[in-house]
Amino acid sequence: MTRRPPRSYRLTLGLTVALMLSLATASAQDYRNCAQTWSIDHPPQRILALNQHAADLLLALGVGKRLIGVAYIDDDLDIADGRYRGVPLLSRQYPSAEAVYAQRPDLVVAGFASAFRLGNLSREELGEHGVASYLLDAGCGVWQNDLFAGVETDLQTLGDMLGETKRAQQLIRRQRAELAEARRLFVGSKPLEVFYLDSASNGLESQGRRGVVTQLLHAAGAHNLFEDVDLGGFTASTEQLLARDPDVILLADALWSTAAQKVRTLRADPVLSQLRAVREGRFVALPFTHLFPGVHSGEAARELAQALEGF
Fold it and tell me: Could you tell me if 243 and 285 lie in one domain?
């Protein structure tokens, strides 16, 4: 006859199994991103950031030691020894899927949807390889009228996922304080008409009402010169720009199209050089990554408000 284990043993075993199951459940986590529910099996320890502003947000959350690589640096010339702020630079643009999987990440975070459109690096494909993914809220493809709320969503979701909830709350409070400071600077002032120049390589690339720069300008007390254009990115014509003659020109400062290059292009053009903002040097430059929703958005609004106050 088989003897049954003592009751105390059975109770201990039962409690142990229950504890193991609860720990397994606690380690698995569901999270919302881009209007879908995703899951991650365990707290991420090997994180890959596929855009500079995604890396900046993760670094601000204090998880630099868990960042195993970063790709696609937009505006930082100080990449020392193949590293960005101490994190290994995997690729200057998007890496191949093979290069990503070779890093054995358990979480891939990107700032633009284009990061997940390369071959078998889709979010679904990553999931099939056991790799979780996160796309910053602004990259989800749904236009929102409050980019700063989207940044708070990113901070809260990633903060919870990474065990950095307290730090996320600190960053959210900092953004709100910077936005409040920006409002203080422009309250009572007449909004300046600002033309945003993203690039001048293939025409005057700018943004309309649906562009994130429109909201950034509002937060700084200014108005997008082409806010009546119901588009995100678009190319303005020389004639349109001359007819509207902006008060100020906001320049994106990127590695592939620096603010200085754009100023030279405008001043060398026989027609565009006649713009009042060009003649009077009424330019404001911001780093490219600060012009997209991220951990720098509050700072960008405050700095832009300070710069515009000078005009």
Answer: yes
